[in-house]
Design brief:
about 220 residues; alpha+beta; TolA/TonB C-terminal domain; 4-stranded mixed sheet; two-stranded antiparallel ribbon; about 25% helix
């Protein structure tokens, strides 16, 4: 016999041991087979569950739908609407009168209008030239009575003559004042305020009809 390199790798030395282990295992399985028993499966009793279920009668069938009877409308309306027959003359003409639209008249120049505006207090003067002189005097008196020198302009030593142009409309009211010649914002504002205080006047007339006119008044601001 050829000698093995390693004695541990020699399986012949363990042959007897392996045979004995196989016999023991075979014998054990044989004994287990003889000793194995089977038992009948017993029914497990969980008690009686007695349910008393009340049987309800089935629901009644749905009622059949009502029959809709279509009745033809055979009722005749005996009463008719009566319309009175009014006699119209075919030759008769209906005239629709509209209110006349009053045209806006551009303001006229104060010096060319036939009848100049009349300042309150000058109504009794018949002569037009004297009435015009009265107009100027009354305006000058009114300006002096309401005049207030602006404090800021006075402190800054600002002075000069402001020209204000305004319109005396067809009712005699002073409207649309504007600065036609400016000196300073504060003086301009005071001049506009003064003109805004002028009273209602008798309006100017051209061919007997009231017309608006323009007028320019100078207001002097002078420090003494």
């Amino acid at each position: 016999m050829i000698k093995k390199k390693s004695e541990r790798a020699d399986l012949e030395s363990k042959r007897t041991t392996l045979v004995l282990i196989g016999l023991v295992v075979s014998l054990s399985l044989t004994i287990l087979g003889f000793e194995w028993r089977t038992y009948e499966a017993a029914l497990m009793d969980f008690g009686n569950l007695d349910l008393d279920l009340e049987k309800k009668p089935p629901p009644p069938p749905p009622a059949p739908p009502e029959v809709i009877e279509v009745v033809e409308n055979e009722i005749e309306i005996e009463k008719e609407i009566e319309i009175d027959n009014q006699d119209f003359d075919e030759d008769e003409v209906f005239e629709i009168i509209e209110d006349p639209v009053e045209e806006e008249v551009a303001p006229m120049n104060f010096m060319v209008v036939e009848n100049k505006p009349v300042f309150p207090g000058c109504e009794g003067i018949a002569d037009q030239m004297q009435q015009y002189m009265c107009f100027q005097q009354k305006i000058a008196q009114h300006i002096v009575s309401v005049f207030k020198y602006p404090a800021i302009a006075k402190d800054m030593g600002i002075q000069g003559k402001v020209f204000i142009t305004f319109v005396i409309d067809k009712t005699g009211k002073v409207v649309s004042p504007v600065v036609s010649r400016s000196v300073d914002k504060y003086l301009d504002d005071e001049a506009l305020r003064i003109v805004g205080t002028l009273p209602m006047m008798t309006p100017a007339k051209q061919r007997g009809k009231p017309v608006p006119v323009t007028f320019t008044v100078p207001i002097s601001f002078k420090l003494q």
